[in-house]
Amino acid sequence: MSYDYIKTEKKGHILVVTMNRPDVYNAIHSDMHFEMAQCWDEFAADQDLWVAVLTGAGDKAFCAGNDLKATATGGNKRGTPDSGFAGLSSRFDLDKPIIAAVNGFAMGGGFETALSCDIILASENAKFALPEVKVGLFAAASGVQRLSRYIGRLAAQELMFTGRTILPDEALELGCVNAVHPHDQLMQKAIEKAEELCAVSPSSVKATKRVLNDMYARDGMQDSIAYSREVIAELAKTEDFKEGVNAFVEKRKPEWVNK
To answer: What is the Rg, in whole angstroms, of the alpha carbon atoms belonging to the chain?
Structure first.
């Protein structure tokens, strides 16, 4: 299957997926969301594919998150598929593991996309943030739910309320990445990890992930993410939302009015 905004490559039982909009730091707009959702559907259905590795094109970015320029110009009206941001953030029926190879900055929805994967490997050049509050948004694509579960609510709140950026060493210390590797070794390490997963029973891995998915359902994550969608829809009606997006596109400091 050929795609417009991502590239795919099969390596035995491994699918390598590359977000491929390097000119906008792999930011994701509506059409790309749906394209990625289709890719994950096909990955799920292919019995010969056991593990996926997700990365970004170029040396600078894994994913810059939501394409705010598309949002500002009405180009994101199609929204996101039911499976969520990057076709992943609200997907709870995929029982195959995905490894995020974060090769550069992962901001906003880009960080949320990585958090929606099962193992996160970071380049030493990576940077992470949920900076949505700086542009009138919030981490509505499962960032609130996932980060607070992975690193604890207190640490997550500080990151989400300030929107500050963390470097790989701090991310590793906090527990939101599994390992940090030299930049030129990242994809090699990601493939090695994928091969390690392929060396064990794929049926057992799928069974394990089915139980993990069920745990999310039992502790209310799916309902909470659905609620995030309601809240972001309300936020989109505020003056601060409009100001944040416009200020970002116009490259100026926003003037908040708290309404």
So the answer is: 17
pTM of the predicted model as reported, rounded to 2 decimal places? 0.95
Under a CB-based contact definition with an 8 Å cutoff, are residues 165 and 129 in contact? Answer: yes
250 catalytically annotated: no
Query: Where do the structural domains in the chain lie, given as residue ranges?
Result: 6-183
Q: Is residue 112 flagged as an active site residue?
A: yes
List 112, 192, 196, 255, catalytic entry: 112
Question: pLDDT tens-digit profile of 156-195?
Answer: 999 999 999 999 999 999 999 999 999 999 999 999 999 9
CATH architecture of 6-183: Alpha-Beta Complex (3.90)
Catalytic hit among 9, 124, 132, 192: 132
- Rounded distance, CA 81 to CA 71, Å? 16
- Contacts of residue 208, Cβ cutoff 8 Å, sequence gap at least 6: none
HSE on the CB side for 251, CA within 13 Å? 0
Q: If you search the block for the tokens 């590797």, which residue do you land on? A: 181
Could you tell me what percentage of the chain is helix, strand and coil, using 3-state DSSP and rounding each to the nearest 5? 50, 15, 35
Give the span between the Cα atoms of 183 and 123, in whole angstroms.
5
